[in-house]
Amino acid sequence: MKNTQVLKFTIIALAVVYIVFGFLKVIDKSAVKDMVLTLVPFMKNGYWFQVLGIFEIVLGVALVVKKTRLYAATGIILHLLFIFLVSIFGGAVIYSAITFLTLQGEFVVKNLVLIAAALHIVASEWKGKKLPTINWRFE
Question: Are residues 15 and 60 in contact, defined by beta-carbon separation less than 8 angstroms?
Answer without folding.
Answer: yes
